[in-house]
Amino acid sequence: MFDYIKGKLTKITAKYIVVEAGGLGYIINVANPYSFTDLVNQDVQIYLHQVVREDAQLLFGFHTEDEKAVFLNLISVSGIGPTTALAIVAVDDNEGLVNAIDNSDIKYLMKFPKIGKKTAQQMVLDLAGKFVDLPAENGKALKQAAAGNAQLDEAMEALLALGYKATELKKIKAFFEGTNESAEQYIKSALKMLMK
């Protein structure tokens, strides 16, 4: 198992980033690839979790150990796989997630993609009281970048990859038309809207 990787961030796509270390390029699935935009061609340290399946070996990456801890708690719940856990981590609202779990707010939890009533109830059962040491926010620096509709398109592509429906995203895309944000900021804002 891996704890973290140190290397150069060489590529960003809607679903993953690539970090080069020791002459190898590692594909790392992350919650919001565009939150790494300012780090392209720079040395990074990404916290990792490896998932080994019959047909694949996958790496999931995180900015902080706290973000990784949330992910690990989520995948410990029956019915939540790594992709669904990443979609939950992408919302970047630890406080809202913890409150929903501790207060048995099933309705809030069901707003996440692929989380039905049964899985939401299981989350409450398995995770209530387990997030005591978690900070309210991950504290990632938000850096605005000059952007355009290409940034909005990239953000929508990333949200589709997280499991959100095209019909939901169409309304959100229309809402943001004419604005000028980074793909990362569009994703964060869209996720907040989707959770309301």
List keywords for this structure.
196 residues; OB fold (Dihydrolipoamide Acetyltransferase, E2P); DNA polymerase, domain 1; 5 strands
Output the number of helix runs: 8
What percent of residues are in strands? 15-25%
Top CATH class of the largest domain: Mainly Alpha
> What is the fold named in CATH at topology level of the largest domain?
DNA polymerase, domain 1
CATH architecture descriptor text of the largest domain = Orthogonal Bundle
> CATH superfamily assignment of the largest domain?
5' to 3' exonuclease, C-terminal subdomain
Helix content: 40-55%
In total, the number of strands is 5
Global outline: globular
Largest sheet: 5 strands, mixed, barrel
What is the average per-residue confidence, as pLDDT, rounded to a whole number?
A: 85
Strand order, largest beta sheet: 1-2-3-5-4
- Distance from N terminus to C terminus (CA atoms, Å) equals 37 Å
SS-based structural class? Answer: alpha+beta
Number of domains: 3
Structure in words:
Helices cover 41% and strands 19% of the residues. It is an alpha+beta fold and 196 residues long. A 5-stranded mixed barrel has the order 1-2-3-5-4. β1 (4-12) and β2 form a beta hairpin. It starts with a strand and ends with a helix. Residues 136-148 have low confidence and may be disordered. One of its GO terms (cellular component) is cytoplasm. Keywords: ATP-binding, Cytoplasm, DNA damage, DNA recombination, DNA repair, DNA-binding, Helicase, Hydrolase, Nucleotide-binding. Belongs to the RuvA family. InterPro entries: DNA_helicase_Holl-junc_RuvA_I, Hlx-hairpin-Hlx_DNA-bd_motif, NA-bd_OB-fold, RuvA, RuvA_2-like, RuvA_C, RuvA_C_sf.
